[in-house]
Known about the structure:
Two copies of one chain form a homodimer. Chain A is mainly alpha-helical.
Amino acid sequence: xxxxxxxxxxxxxxxxxxxxxxxxxxxxxxxxxxxxxxxxxxxxxxxxxxxxxxxxxxxxxxxxxxxxxxxxxxxxxxxxxxxxxxxxxxxxxxxxxxxxxxxxxxxxxxxxxxxxxxxxxxxxxxxxxxxxxxxxxxxxxxxxxxxxxxxxxxxxxxxxxxxxxxxxxxxxxxxxxxxxxxxxxxxxxxxxxxxxxxxxxxxxxx
Amino acid sequence: xxxxxxxxxxxxxxxxxxxxxxxxxxxxxxxxxxxxxxxxxxxxxxxxxxxxxxxxxxxxxxxxxxxxxxxxxxxxxxxxxxxxxxxxxxxxxxxxxxxxxxxxxxxxxxxxxxxxxxxxxxxxxxxxxxxxxxxxxxxxxxxxxxxxxxxxxxxxxxxxxxxxxxxxxxxxxxxxxxxxxxxxxxxxxxxxxxxxxxxxxxxxxx
DNA sequence: GTAGGATTGGATCGTCAAGTCCAGTCCGAA
DNA sequence: TTCGGACTGGACTTGACGATCCAATCCTAC
Lengths: 206, 206
């Protein structure tokens, strides 16, 4: 019984990863409830028992998917955010986010956002993990903005925390609307509005 | 067979309404996939056959729920938005939205937003209805902002459409984050940022 | 009051998902 | 090389859900 903890062998780790990656992909596209364990089994090329060998139940697998997606987003976003030292860099970050959404016509939305919308209310364990993911994300944005305060691009005293939350909310809401409307106009409008507001904190103004 | 079209009798209409209201409530709290037709049957106090007498299948019922929620939101929001003639009124609108979220600790999120997140990708018929709902909502906001342009509170040439989309995205993203974080700080941050940006369009500035 | 459609009750069916079981194979350590 | 635990395959059980069926009742128009 290796259900708890990481598999001890190389092969076991590879199998577990394959399951998580397949589940993440399916859950991203069809939601958690819309993803059956048989579907995961087929997509990952494993048998039923392997899923339950590595995970206690579907909730446990879902938890692993949340962790996986949080890390994937951070891995993707961090490079853009650690170099956030100017308004140009902020615009570039926005362009990357918008472009990613545009490429798929808004389909899918944010991997973390959809999971959160589906699970937060009914599953406290999921909500905690998701809140942690969002927190790490907004923390990364805040650190970027703090860089801009540090190097003088933004006025001292600027509340980087609050602005980071506003940016994250704009991303989430924009992506959600992009999903329904199949265009990125709301995402762009929201990001542009918040960024324009941030520009109001540029050093060299009141 | 009265599956299509409204029931012809008073009693039939009441039964149909009871089903839609019960389904809307359950789907709001547990999602569409998390709401079984037996659960709707019990909550509405009807029998299985009645559900399938008034609706072709669960998708058809879901469609009715989307319509119901769109109308409920519009009915709730319109009074606040038709009187949107000043920045004070805009702040009041924000306060109502934030207060509603705070009252339930963010739980539930936006009735339209959660449905959209769950259904938009896989169900085109739902996406169309949801996009229409969002469109009506942002349209109502835009009309409010247009009033402010008309009465001179906002500069002529202000793009009320874009600002309305930004506000709606801020609401959606803020509510989504409130759901996971159990607080309204992101919602407030996003709305404050967008509203501050709108204030930048106040008449009497460049 | 009565015909006929609208409405209702609830048993029932087919399907599929979650999770279990166990027999077997692989593989590293002694 | 052999022992034991890690890992794998897939049949199987159980239960719930969506949907159907049909008989019974209501109610409105005539």
